[in-house]
Design a protein that fits this description.
The complex is a heterodimer of chains A (about 325) and B (about 325).
Chain A (H helix, E strand, L loop, with lengths): L3 H14 L2 H30 L4 H17 L5 H19 L9 H12 L3 H10 L4 H6 L2 H4 L6 H35 L7 E4 L2 E3 L2 E3 L4 E4 H29 L3 H20 L18 H5 L10 H25 L5
Antiparallel strand pairs in A: 1-4, 2-3
Helix pairs in contact in A: 1-9, 2-9, 3-4, 5-9, 5-10, 6-9, 6-10, 6-11, 9-10, 9-13, 10-11, 10-13
Chain B lengths: L10 E12 L2 E12 L3 E5 L6 H8 L7 E6 L2 E2 L4 H4 L3 E4 L11 H9 L7 H10 L15 H13 L5 E5 L7 H16 L3 E6 L2 H7 L2 E6 L2 E7 H6 L4 E6 L2 H10 L4 E3 L8 H4 L6 E4 L5 H10 L4 E7 L3 H14 L1
Parallel strand pairs in B: 3-8, 3-9, 6-7, 7-8
Antiparallel strand pairs in B: 1-2, 1-4, 4-5, 9-10, 11-13, 11-14, 12-13
Helix pairs in contact in B: 4-5
Chain lengths: ~325, ~325
């Protein structure tokens, strides 16, 4: 009859003392500088190529686009997009920002976009994969389940702990990205405008809803979407961890599913029903950027629904199996 | 005959018609017994007889196919959170979290039950005598220390019933002796203990009453000494003229000769005695037989009584069932 808070405390302590989160932070501390260095090299290269005056270049683009806005031959929806572009370019000019040089926030944004399909799920798996199977392979599950606590409460406390750590992973990734890349690129860029609202339907991009939002809002939206995708991965990993006795098997199963998803998305599949698989729907942030979805007919709403349903099914299976299964060894 | 103590009537654990099938195979075919307050109850059976499966059902790790398990009147399967409050257990090995210290492990399990204070944790640490190493990581512990920590964990909630599964496994002789004394102390304090083993001698040394399980069925429940007396005790003869001696023994109607491959005496007992004659006979016939051997000029080098093994006990019990 112990209260849930005490159970969550137990689970949190175990994950922490197992140094799983420490490993995640360590990986971030090693990998982020590598990418910062790569980004710095790219910036240096392009700076050498375009040695001209960037302010003059910006001014030119603004003039060109403004002129195009006056033309009758351009459809109205394109004009909207151009108006937003002009707005963005004007912002750069007004705030003395060279759009070719990255700052800490654009780096973070770019890193998060690339991390959503593989990197962050990998870190989530580092924690989720042995949450239950770890107790089974070491035999501690026998102590855990013979205490006077209902089984669903134990699994629920593990789920709450998992949610806490998933959130913590995403926050730490953003914070570490910003702090490390800021050393090189400078700690600014929160207010910089960025386009959102692209709607891709078939081969056409509908730009009628495009508008600029400050980058901090973009990063926030991005983090929210990544959190949703990561929670789906975490819940499915929890399910596999309940079903499979060995931690290695549980980790490999989930990793294989996620990598398969990444490959399928890149194949720009004509296999339409593949869009109902959870692993091709993980790249939620691509809807913010307005890149075409891997399979026709996928929208942000659709992907959220698919992920939500998979997560729900994962929860149902996890709880049904965990509360009923016989612990035979 | 400690079962006759008057206060030992309250039933702490009651197992009624327990059955378990996995797939189509029936593993446990009917297990029933009661454990009373303050007694040490042995659960004896060879490996693979269903001991561990039964124990796992007692603590809600495995759901029985049919039957009931009541701890202090609460159904373990329907109300695990109320029934298991009265139970402390170690199922097989005492596995704890190796990356936590002994103390952190105890704190972990204390949080899973209401009303266990830091004072109680310190108390159980003292009971099992672990004060010195309690703040070290469990992965540095020896098996004996893990065993102690496991018992400390089991005692946290002041249980009325302590379940220990093969507790002497892996302990050295001194450790086993200490454990026996410890178990007796707990029982004297009013706790019931349920101890499984595959060794008859261990149960004889530790327990008041015993349930014997074979092939998924309880074949006998009762006082340990009474049960043991039901099986044949061997008398082993070592004579200087074995052939003549054997003929004399064969002629005696009160003596049953046992062939070389029919007995189940441990090989170590018969080592170095290739000509030993194994018999089953009443204890009070031995002196007379010795006298007759001497009269016939047959020298008696040794006579030895050998207690039955667990297998012998089974045989005795199952034969008894057939006759009855």
């Amino acid at each position: 009859m112990a209260n849930l808070l005490a159970l969550v405390q137990n689970e949190t302590i175990k994950v922490w003392k197992k140094k799983r989160f420490a490993v995640v932070v360590l990986i971030l501390l090693i990998l982020i500088p590598v990418f910062v260095y790569a980004q710095m090299k790219i910036a240096q290269n392009s700076a050498e190529k375009f040695k001209g005056d960037w302010r003059a270049e910006l001014q030119n683009r603004i003039t060109d686009n403004t002129r195009a806005l006056g033309s009758d031959r351009i459809p109205e929806e394109w004009k909207k997009w151009r108006r937003a572009l002009v707005q963005q370019l004007q912002y750069y000019l007004d705030h003395d920002i060279n759009p070719q040089t990255p700052n800490a926030v654009t780096f973070t944004r770019g890193f998060m976009d690339n991390a959503v399909t593989l990197f962050i799920p990998l870190m989530v798996l580092a924690i989720a994969s042995d949450l239950v199977s770890g107790e089974r392979s070491t035999g501690t599950i026998k102590m855990l389940l013979t205490r006077p606590v209902r089984r669903w409460r134990i699994l629920f406390s593990k789920l709450v702990t998992l949610t806490l750590y998933v959130s913590l992973i995403i926050v730490s990734t953003v914070v570490l990205c910003y702090l490390i890349s800021g050393l090189v690129f400078g700690y600014r860029g929160w207010g910089e405008p960025i386009f959102v609202g692209f709607q891709v339907s078939g081969a056409d991009v509908n730009t009628s809803a495009v508008h600029a939002i400050p980058q901090y809002l973009y990063v926030l939206m991005q983090a929210g979407l990544i959190w949703f995708a990561s929670m789906t991965v975490a819940i499915l990993a929890l399910m596999v961890s309940v079903l499979v006795r060995s931690t290695a098997a549980s980790f490999v199963t989930m990793m294989a599913a996620i990598i398969a998803g990444a490959i399928l998305t890149n194949m720009a599949s004509s296999w339409h029903s593949a869009k109902y698989l959870f692993n091709v729907n993980l790249e939620l942030t691509s809807y913010l950027q307005g890149t075409p979805p891997p399979i026709e007919g996928m929208t942000l709403g659709f992907s959220l629904c698919v992920l939500g349903l998979w997560a729900l099914a994962g929860l149902v299976v996890s709880f049904a199996v965990f509360t009923k299964q016989d612990i035979l060894n | 005959m400690s079962t006759n103590t008057p206060k030992a009537q309250e039933t702490v654990l009651s197992v009624q018609g327990l059955k378990k099938s996995i797939g189509r195979k029936e593993i446990i075919k009917g297990v029933s017994f009661d454990v009373r307050a303050g007694e040490i109850f042995g659960f004896l059976g060879p490996n693979g007889s269903g001991k561990t499966t039964t124990i796992r059902m007692l603590v809600d790790l495995i759901k029985p196919t049919s039957g009931r398990i009541l701890v202090c009147g609460e159904d373990v399967n329907r109300n695990p959170e109320r029934a298991l409050r009265h139970v402390g257990c170690i199922v097989e090995n005492p596995e704890m979290y190796g990356y936590l210290t002994g103390w952190e492990n105890l704190e972990h399990f204390a949080r899973m039950q209401e009303g266990i204070t830091a004072e109680r944790i310190a108390e159980v640490v003292e009971i099992v005598g672990m004060d010195r190493r309690i703040h070290d990581k469990v992965k540095t512990y020896s098996l004996g220390m893990r065993q102690r920590l496991g018992i400390a964990q089991a005692l946290l909630g002041k249980p009325k019933l302590l379940i220990l599964d093969e507790p002497t496994n892996g302990l050295d002789p001194l450790g086993i002796k200490e454990l026996r004394a410890f178990i007796r102390r707990l029982a004297d304090g009013g706790m019931s203990l349920f101890i499984s083993s595959h060794l008859l001698s261990e149960i004889q040394l530790m327990c008041d009453r015993v349930a014997i399980i074979a092939r998924g069925e309880v074949i006998a429940v009762g006082d340990v000494d009474e049960l043991v007396s039901q099986a044949d005790t061997y008398t082993v003869w070592l004579l200087d003229r074995p052939e003549a001696g054997k003929a004399m023994l064969e002629a005696d109607p009160g003596v049953r000769l046992i062939g070389e491959h029919e007995h189940r005496i441990d090989d170590s007992i018969l080592a170095g005695m290739p000509e030993a004659i194994i018999t089953v006979m009443e204890e009070d016939r031995i002196a007379g037989t010795v006298a007759r051997f001497v009269g016939a000029g047959i020298g008696v080098k040794a006579v030895q009584r050998v207690s039955p093994s667990l297998e012998e006990l089974f045989l005795g019990l199952t034969e008894g069932e057939k006759i009855g």
